[in-house]
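Deliverable D5.2: sample structural annotation.
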Amino acid sequence: MTITARTMCRRMSAFAVCILISGWLAAQTDPAKNTSSSKPGAQPTSADSGAGAVATRLHDDTYVIGDDDVLAINVWKEAEVSRTVPVRSDGKISLPLAGEVQASGQTPLQLEKVLAAKLQSFISEPEVTVIVTEIRSQKFNILGQVSKPGTYPLTNASTVLDAIAIAGGFRDFAKQKSIYILRQNPDGSEMRLSFNYKDVIKGKNSAQNIKLQPRDTIVVP
């Protein structure tokens, strides 16, 4: 009986040791319990980089910034410098430390490099992200027999039909079959594109419902 009791005690002790070892191994492999990244001097991972990593994927080297556009400028870990600013009518923006900077005519990626160069005197290795949050520089005009003629912001998907709707539709005596669009060519010349509203809404000549470009002028006789 005594031998059996000792044997049981030994087995129970061994079982307890196994449980303790298993728990220790699980703690070492559990990423939620691994706090090495919080040690001073530890290098941040891609997850730690937060907004900086996300903003890096939002770089844009195609859109050209224009007057009245609104820009969100983020300087990584520099909240006092980061801000949302409008592009003034002179094409410039104002940013703490960087001062007056020409923004109009540059892509967001180009402007990032300019701002980073200006901030280097004050910030070690500045990481700058520029995002166009509101496009206000690209506009179209609509004139003539519409309810609200004028100049309107141009969105990426604006078509002639969209423009007519934005302008409140036609007046009573509008010549809906004789609408035309004036468009500037790169060489400075101007082309005239016809638009027959009656046909387009019936599904005919749908190619006439073109996507508008900046500075297009729609004329409704």
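Annotation notes: The longest helix spans residues 2-29. Residues 135 and 155 are 8 Å apart (CA to CA).
The annotation will be released with the project's public dataset once the embargo ends.
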